[in-house]
Write a structure and sequence with these properties.
Helix 6 crosses helix 9 and helix 6 crosses helix 10. A 3-stranded antiparallel sheet has the order 1-2-3, with no helix packed on it. The protein contains 13 helices and 3 strands, in the order H-H-H-H-H-H-H-E-E-E-H-H-H-H-H-H. It has 2 domains: 96 residues, Tyrosine recombinase, N-terminal domain (DNA polymerase, domain 1); 169 residues, Orthogonal Bundle (hpI Integrase, Chain A). With 305 residues, it is mainly alpha-helical.
């Protein structure tokens, strides 16, 4: 298709998605979000008619993002704004626009106010120590939690973990697709390896599923969903008697990251472990390391007499 052809919303979105996949290496989940918000913009501006990318004006963009702020939380509006900026850069790369319309996308206020919510080291280890293996389901949940707390896996990465991703001989775990668009090879620690082996040998139902973690109730042997991961964390926190600032897998990832920072890990090392595509995401953890900031603060120079 040339720049003189008439676009429909669908053909333009397919081309945008392909650009994200092939040129930028964006993973499927992120591409889906970018396409979703871009689709809403195109439907808002052009309704059901043909799409003329050059006809999208600054007022269209500002009004669209402004309308989202009334309906959604800041984090969702920020994701929409990021999606539009990526789309407008795509239009320029394809010769469909010559200007920098992405600069017209408003900044979303109140981004990440306050400190990262996490468990302090004492409560973090209290949670780990409270995990038990008294039932097959708790064997599973213990292994799930350790994968997040020690390896930094996201809930979605836990769900997608397959039997062949665990290399017992070389003590590694392969994460197939992260938000960076690439996979990762993580070290399999003795603690996590023992938890996985215990579950596979003594807890996991007989099933043809290749996913490591499966259901133990109703659809026995079917792969778990993200809600099961979140429920495992919530149940463990409740049994440990911990009143956590947030729930779910992100609490464990945040706690792992801040603990590593306290022990001298660099932001680059933490970003690689957690699968962050940008150091800007990892820098949020620097805000909690007040002690480290005091250590590197330089004294105010004194004038010589």
């Amino acid at each position: 298709m040339t720049i003189h052809d008439r676009w429909t919303a669908e053909t333009l979105l397919v081309s945008f998605d392909e650009h994200l996949r092939r040129t930028r290496g964006v993973c499927a989940g992120t591409r889906g979000n970018y396409v979703k918000f871009t689709r809403v913009l195109l439907e808002t501006v052009f309704a059901d008619g043909p799409v003329e990318p050059a006809d999208i004006c600054v007022r269209d963009v500002v009004d669209f993002v402004g309308g989202l702020t009334v309906r959604y939380q800041p984090a969702t509006v920020e994701l929409a704004a990021t999606s539009l900026r990526s789309f407008f850069r795509f239009l320029r790369a394809q010769g469909l626009r010559a200007d920098r319309l992405e600069d017209a996308v408003p900044m979303v206020p109140c981004r990440r106010t306050g400190l990262v919510r996490h468990l302090d080291p004492g409560r973090f280890e209290q949670l780990i120590a409270s995990l038990d293996s008294s039932t097959p389901r708790r064997l599973r949940d213990r292994a799930i939690i350790l994968c997040m707390a020690r390896l930094g896996l996201r809930a979605s990465e836990v769900v997608q973990l397959r039997l062949e991703d665990v290399d017992w001989r070389n003590a590694t775990v392969r994460v197939r697709a992260r938000k960076t668009g690439h996979g990762a090879l993580l070290p399999l620690t003795a603690e996590v390896g023992a938890a996985l082996a215990g579950y596979l040998q003594h807890g996991r139902p007989t099933t043809a599923a290749r996913q490591v973690f499966v259901l133990h109730w109703l659809r026995i042997g079917a792969p778990i969903s993200g809600s099961i991961v979140g429920r495992a964390v919530d149940n463990a926190l409740r049994r440990a008697g911990i009143d956590a600032p947030i729930r779910g897998a992100n609490l464990l990832r945040h706690s792992l990251a801040t603990g590593l920072l306290d022990h001298g890990a660099s932001l680059r090392e933490i970003a690689d472990l957690l699968g962050h595509s940008s150091l800007a995401t990892t820098r949020i953890y620097a805000s909690v390391d007040v002690a480290a900031l005091r250590e590197v603060a330089l004294p105010w120079p004194q004038a010589s007499s």
